[in-house]
User: What shape does this take?
Amino acid sequence: MGYTRAVYDAVDALFQSRRSTTEEELAARTEKLHGLFPRLAEINAVFSATASAVVGEVIRAAGQTAEEAMERLKHEDLKLRAEYEAILTAAGYPADYLEPVRLCGKCGDRGVVGQTVCDCYRAALSREAYSRSNLGSAYRGCTFDTFRLEYYSDAKDPQRKHSPRQNMKHILSRCREFCKGSSPSGQGVGLLLYGDPGLGKTFLSAAIAREATENGRMAVYETAGRVADNCVKRLFGRGDDDTEAETEAYYTADLLLIDDLGSEMATPGNVAAIFDVINTRVMHRRQMVISTNKNLNELQKIYDARIMSRLIGDFLPLQFYGRDVRQIKASGG
Assistant: This one.
């Protein structure tokens, strides 16, 4: 799928706005200084003349060849530019004060360098796609590189095979593999992140979403409750255009991240909606990440065999355990 048309339109509008703002600011500065220093306006008028017209005048006036005229034109241009900059600096302004200020020096805020898309445009696409993923600003700094393993104890737990830190290293590795498009341990299209609250499930979901958007893929993050609510509204024709667009994205986005599975009301309609989204995406091999504070036994009490079959057969289950990271941070640990 890649980025949607809406993402491209938003970024194109952003770059157009940048260029328009730059031109307006430059026009205001130019008008002010040309009024204060008329000689600047005179020089600028010469700069604005077309090269062919100026060359023609030089040839007619001096009887020179085109090459000689161009050399003379170049010399005159350098003299005028030096005078132009001298007037500005003498008045206390930078020599380039009447040049456009671009945010990107490579593409001049056009988004392309020759026939190649500029890095700044690619970055803007990624930011726009991430902002549309529904992840709030609190998670914008969540990346694999900022995930801190030291919050997880390295002490051995006699009831578990691995310490919390060893377990998180394993989970982090599997999440990285998932972002590369591989299917960890032969599983299907999804990851099932489960465990108590405050252990990093949403953090890693956000990191996965960021990786996806930075690689040109559209990611959508949503709570299970809202997924079910929007799907039911769509089914019964109670939604608006925004609801329709959001619901369509659940099925078509390159990556869907469903948070807090099991927190929604377990009505027949909600359960059917959740199953339809999961089943459709599995059938089309579209990646998913589902996180929940429930364990597998608790999920089996909420959902029917159809959903559990998908979760167990097509998702790699990754259990989070250890101390609540939010509490550790709050206590200054």
